[in-house]
TrEMBL record:
Pfam name, any one: RRM_1
Domain of life of the source: Eukaryota
Organism: Fregata magnificens (Magnificent frigatebird)
Domain RRM: 21-95
Alphabetized Gene3D superfamilies for the sequence: 3.30.70.330
Name recorded for this polypeptide: RBM45 protein
InterPro entries for the chain: Nucleotide-bd_a/b_plait_sf, RBD_domain_sf, RBM45_RRM2, RBM45_RRM3, RRM_dom, SLIRP/GR-RBP-like
Record's keyword terms, sorted: RNA-binding
Molecular function GO labels: RNA binding
Length: 224
């Protein structure tokens, strides 16, 4: 669906490259690019690996990218790699610093980024920031509520949200008195739910009909 909707802005291969084949991971600072390649080559053919380094000192920030030749390989790496890597799909290189990596890692480390740093700020390596009000008001969970002016088709909505790894179930509910759509989506991790909300809130499905995606309290400890 992402590829089809984006064809007007570039080729199929370009969209695959930017959206579906590059993953972003947290790694030990001792890792070299060869170490990173060695750890992730079991999931598919790697085009390149890169490690984010401090521009002043040249030291690793403990963050890296792995780009595969196929989207299926990137998805497999996200699903099967050790959870300590906190792997997610990377944003296109031309995105601003207000990207999903920025949001995802600041959430997972329970810190707020300062300025344009992404997401940690040099010295000291992990800085302490106060949460802003909008983050406090929004309770993160593994479950999402999806609203639409039009009714949903179970199989189509499942296929859409299954683009984000970790989908556990998609439950479409119908109100006999209205023609609107409502569904409950659950992922295996809060990280997947955060990414799905980031990608699909405001997404037009079908074209002209914007989806509203919000977190739904699932009783878990949101601090995780």
């Amino acid at each position: 669906v992402f590829i089809a909707q984006s064809r007007a802005s570039g080729s199929h291969r370009d969209v695959e490259d930017e959206e579906l084949t590059r993953i972003f991971v947290m790694i030990p600072k001792s890792y070299t690019e060869e170490d990173l390649r060695e750890k992730f080559k079991m999931y598919g053919d790697i085009e390149y690996c890169s490690i984010i380094k401090n521009k002043t000192t040249g030291e690793s920030k403990g963050l890296g990218y792995v780009r595969y030749l196929k989207p299926s390989q990137a998805a497999r790496a996200i699903e099967e790699c050790d959870r300590s890597y906190r792997a997610i799909l990377a944003e296109p290189k031309n995105k601003s610093s207000e990207s999903v990596e920025h949001d995802y890692y600041s959430n997972n480390t329970r810190q707020e980024p300062r300025g344009n740093t992404l997401p940690f700020c040099g010295q000291p390596e992990f800085c302490s920031f106060e949460k802003n009000e909008s983050r406090i008001q929004e309770s993160v969970s593994k479950r999402l509520s999806v609203l639409s002016r039009l009714p949903f088709v179970q199989e189509q909505l499942f296929a859409l949200f299954d683009l984000v790894p970790g989908l556990e179930y998609c439950d479409v509910q119908r109100d006999p008195h209205t023609n609107s759509g409502y569904a409950v989506i659950q992922y295996s991790t809060a990280a997947s739910a955060i990414y799905a909300k980031y990608k699909l809130h405001g997404f037009e499905y079908p074209p002209g009909n914007r989806l509203t995606v919000i977190f739904l309290e699932d009783g878990s400890d949101s601090s995780e």
